[in-house]
Specification:
Plays a role in primary ciliogenesis by modulating actin polymerization. By secondary structure, this protein is of the alpha+beta class. It contains 7 helices and 14 strands. It is elongated and about 110 Å long.
Length: 348
């Protein structure tokens, strides 16, 4: 098995991460709710996965949160994942992954934490495995160039939604962390043929993706997942597991909104004089304004006298600068004007 320095993502995988469509990414922010069903058809657990945009320390990130809890062969087990990703390239900022199996007397818990150095891009992976009273700790560090194309368990949930929206035409190889050793191993994805799936009383068409993850000390792990066209998970099967994760109710399909083109109207000259109704309104409004002006002047005879005086002085002096002359004339009536000879006295 290729691991650590030898495990590398292929060019197709790196190109996919580099060219993620931001609009399609925005349509992946939703929640999946499914149930875990045993071979006999009994519901033995539940699976939820939510992806949302969040702001953390002033930076816009993607939060992936998933949990799976239930019983397999009457043994309680579960997984919880919380992953923070950068929208550009789905770079991992931080992840916490907890797995547990509660076999009486042989309880097992695995905690894996991933942190990315914000300056160098290097990753630190810390693992704590608790089995009964035994606790084992380990730590791995990877340079930024080693983890190009890394897909963690949290990233995987978002990546598969994007494959459904942007398309997956053939096998593509990323890298991921081996669940047992913490080393880097290959993770390949390839499309599965379209098929029909019965959800409740509805029959829907779904598309599938097979994910195959190498292992350092065991045979590869393989999952087959099926989705609606918008990325809603409808079924997930781990090869060799007696239980499957399946959908109970068909969710509403999420589609990209296509704005309708704005109507374009040819500009036409407004011939209001020829429109009887508009011409009538114009004349009516004109008379209303005229009546209002006349009423105001009748109630303020000093305004008429002031204007008459101004025009009288203007015609007597005939200044070249009419605006300056008007400013000087009317400023004499300001209460802030310095006492002195009146404007009229200075003009005579």
């Amino acid at each position: 098995t290729e691991s650590d320095k030898n495990a590398r993502a292929d060019e197709t995988a790196l190109a996919f991460l580099k060219n993620i469509d931001p609009e399609e990414l925005a349509l992946c922010y939703f929640r999946d709710e499914l149930v875990t069903v045993s071979e006999g058809g009994t519901t033995v657990g539940e699976f939820t996965a939510s992806i949302e945009k969040v702001t953390r320390s002033g930076e816009e990130l993607i939060l992936v949160h998933a949990s799976s809890h239930g019983k397999v062969d009457d043994t309680p087990m579960g997984t919880t994942i919380s992953t923070y990703l950068r929208p550009t390239g789905l770079q991992v900022v931080e992840q916490e992954h907890i797995e547990f199996v509660k076999v009486p007397g042989h309880e097992l818990e695995k905690k894996t934490g991933i942190e990315c150095d914000p300056e160098t891009g290097d990753l630190t992976v810390k693992r704590i495995v608790t089995q009964g009273h035994e606790v084992r700790k380990s730590q791995h560090q990877f340079k930024a160039d080693q983890v190009a194309g890394l897909v963690t368990e949290g990233t995987n949930l978002l990546l598969q939604r994007l494959f459904m929206r942007q398309g997956l035409s053939g096998e593509v190889c990323f890298i991921t962390l081996d669940s047992d050793s913490g080393h880097l191993v290959k993770a390949s994805y390839q499309p599965l043929p379209e098929r029909s799936q019965k959800v409740g009383k509805k029959e829907i068409q779904v598309s599938g993706i097979e994910r195959r993850v190498a292992s350092v000390g065991d045979i590869p792990y393989t999952w087959q997942s099926f989705f609606m066209p918008d990325g809603h998970l409808t079924m997930r099967v781990q090869i060799g597991s007696p239980a499957i994760v399946t959908l109970e109710k068909v969710p509403r399909l999420i589609e990209r909104d296509i704005p309708e083109p704005k109507p374009v109207f040819d500009k036409k000259r407004l011939m209001w004089e020829e429109d009887m109704e508009m011409n009538s309104r114009f004349l009516q409004r004109k008379e209303e304004l005229k009546a209002g002006h006349e009423q105001y002047l009748r109630g303020h005879p000093d305004a008429t006298a002031l204007i008459a005086d101004f025009f009288q002085f203007l015609l007597l002096r005939r200044p070249d600068d009419v605006v300056g002359f008007a400013a000087e004339f009317f400023s004499s009536f300001s209460p802030k004007n310095t006492p002195g000879k009146s404007f009229k006295a200075r003009l005579v």
